[in-house]
Amino acid sequence: MAFEVVFDEKVKKLGFELGLEEDDRPHVSGVKPGGAAIALGVRAGDILVTINGAPVGKPSREEIKALLKVRPLTLQSAPESWLDEFFMTAFFRRAATATNSGEQFFSFRKGCKRRLRERNKHLVLESGAEVSDSGSESDGQAWNIQQSVPKTRQTFVKLRIVTMRVRVSCDASAGSLRFLLRVPRELELVADFVRHLHLRLPQQATSLVLRVGGFALLPTLRLTDVLRDDDEVCVTVTGSDERPPIQSSVPMAALPDSAAPVAPAEKRRPKDAGNEDVPTPAAPAPSKARKEKQKPKVALVTSKQAAAEARQVLARSRQPSEEPQDEDMQQARSVNHPLLGELEVPPGQRTEEFVNRKLRTLKKAIRRQ
Q1: How many helices (DSSP H) and strands (DSSP E) are in the chain?
Q2: 357-369: per-residue pLDDT in tens?
Q3: How do 341-345 and 178-183 pair as beta strands?
Q4: Three-class DSSP category at 143
Q5: If we measure between CA atoms, which residue out of 343, 324, 322 comes closest to residue 333?
Q6: What CATH architecture is 163-238?
Q7: Residue 33 and residue 143 in contact, taking contact as beta carbons nearer than 8 Å
Q8: Is residue 21 over pLDDT 70?
Q9: I need a surface site. Which of 68, 78, 289, 307 has the fewest CB within 10 A?
């Protein structure tokens, strides 16, 4: 892992106070390599070390000397994909006129890598890093700043690189505490962090509500989405039988009557207790005439004669009233039918309707047999 060490002007002047020589005084690197960034600065008269913007604490005089003697390296080993693109461009520029350029590419790439590794090793030696004589590729990497920090400090720096710290402030219900808390990486959801925080409170709380910037953190959200390093988390303790107040932008007094909560019937009865002696008017009973009007009229047929009269009435209603009745209908007539034979049509009936009625009667008789 590579680091960038950034020094402000006050720290530069601190080199004279610590008795460092001209060559040992730090300088500011303009190129930020990959990895964590360690900054050494002065705040309110104290020397503070920050890693990725998170304050580590106040270092000792020996640690300050060790940090000031280490110079930041701007040389980094490039990834393989970038190297392949670089070697491909450089080789084909050099061998644009060659005929067998494709076969010589891998040998050219291997030689360039070897020369680049030797140059990296030479630059690291110039910057003051100690390189072993084994010549391994790991020695050619950028200088690790933790090699100049005491072992007791190295462990703490590694923890600060992989974790996150938050400022926890509890209200009066939680004891009015304020402390710093490290958030382990294995915690994924807000509910996991609530359980982690619940174990570290002095008093047993039934339920905790976390807020960041006045906004509550839902238990189902991920910590990486809602929590950042050095955030202030406000903790509120709520009872198991209490519900957190609902934040509403409209007061209850401004709500209309239709939006007010409806109370059950048992709770509404005492309000109407004063009106119990006033009888409520009953609904008027429907009269017999109205009941008769509402009942559907059903025609009851009791004899064949009444049925025949009903058919005649229907037949008269179907034919237009303006059409004059034939004089032949006033007298009885005889008709010779191929199936029914000779029939006598009674007066007042049409011949076609009489014959059709006889045919329907014949069909019913045949079905019954």
Answers
A1: 11, 11
A2: 888 888 888 888 7
A3: unpaired
A4: coil
A5: 343
A6: Roll (3.10)
A7: no
A8: no
A9: 289
